Amino acid sequence: MYIKMHRRRVLVLTGAGVSAESGIPTFRGKDGYWRNLNPAKLATPEAFAKDPGLVWEWYRERRQRIRSAQPNPAHAAIAKLAQHAQEFLLVTQNVDDLHARAGSSKEKMVQIHGDIFVTRCSQCDFNQREHPPSFNYGVAGEREGEHIDVPRCPRCDRLMRPGVVWFGEQLPWNELRRVESYLKDGSCDFVIVAGTTATFGYIIDWALRASGSNGELIEVNPEETPLSQFATRCVREPAAIALPQLVDQFVAQPPKL
Questions:
Q1: Burial code of 9-35, b = ≥16 C-beta within 10 A, e = fewer?
Q2: How far apart are CA 75 and CA 97, in angstroms?
Q3: With contact defined as beta carbons under 8 Å apart, do 104 and 76 qualify?
Q4: CA–CA separation, 75 vs 53, rounded Å?
Q5: Which of 23, 33, 88, 216 is the most buried (most CB within 10 A)?
Q6: Catalytic entry in 6, 99, 113, 147
Q7: Which residues contact 244 (CB under 8 A, 6 or more apart)?
Q8: CB 168 within 8 A of CB 45
Q9: Dihedral of alpha carbons 105, 106, 110, 113, sign
Q10: How far apart, in whole angstroms, are the C-alpha atoms of residue 149 and residue 155?
Q11: Which of 190, 136, 146, 157 has its CA nearest to residue 56?
């Protein structure tokens, strides 16, 4: 494979398939089910209103599973790509911390669906992130894995919730603004969309706007998606296999003047 490069302006969009290669189940398929419950029905404001304890129990188990997982070669390749691009932005739909643990910086990364290790108030703007990842949860003396009440906000006493975007909720404005700002600064020479089913329209929109008329749009996914018809190249391999190869080619090829 040969990548045509000019200015080395890069956008990478990642989805659940990238984390799945580290053992994090996706919401789709039987592996994503939790106690015979569909996670897509747990990750909603309605589910939290009905049974916040059940939702928190699920998220605590998800946090533990993420802590036990390790970044895979796809995460490492993306972090390496960021170091060699002149301009770079990673937009991930994943709420885990695997990109960060692989070396991707917050300044060059947008978690468009939130951060599972952030806990925020369901009413006011209070929020906090577990830092560093440990078993000390930090809200009302809670510790992960213990059976305790749903945490409450220290400011307004309303229920605290995971800092992620649930189905039916709007994307966070500050993160949207960062993506839009990057896109408005100019088209990209190289766009990678990896491990996402591209079922959300904004993923396709961002990929197409970023690649413009001359950029290369590469889809990395074992399966065909709604984005496939627009890609200049489709790599039907897992991201952990395909991305290290693509990035090595990028690094080895000097930009054209």
A1: bbbbbbbbbbbbbbebbbbeeeeeeee
A2: 10
A3: no
A4: 32
A5: 88
A6: 113
A7: 73, 74, 76, 77
A8: yes
A9: positive
A10: 17
A11: 146
β-bridge mates for residue 255, sequence order: none
pLDDT tens for residues 34-81? 656 777 788 999 999 999 999 999 999 999 999 999 999 999 999 999
113 is catalytic: yes
48-59 pLDDT per residue, tens: 999 999 999 999
- What type of residue sits at position 90? L
Six-digit token string for 144: 């992960």
Distance set, CA 72 to CA 18, 29, 169, 200 (Å)? 8, 21, 30, 25
Note whether 218 and 188 are within 8 A (CB): no
Nearest to 194 by CA among 157, 244, 158: 244
Which tokens sit at 225? 């998606």
- Tokens for 220, please give them: 């990395």
pLDDT score for 134: 41
- The residues that bridge with 152 in the sheet, in sequence order, are 159
Using alpha carbons, select from 103, 109, 114, 48 the residue that is nearest to residue 79: 103
Phi, psi of 171 (to 5 degrees): -70, 150
| Interaxial angle between packed helices 239-252 and 73-84, expressed in degrees from 0 to 180 and rounded to the nearest 10 | 20
- What residue type is 254 in one-letter code? P
Rounded Cα–Cα distance for residues 85 and 96 (Å): 24
Tell me the CA end-to-end span of the chain in Å, nearest whole number: 21
Looking at residue 119, the DSSP 8-state letter turns out to be E
Q: How many CB atoms lie within 10 A of CB 36?
A: 6
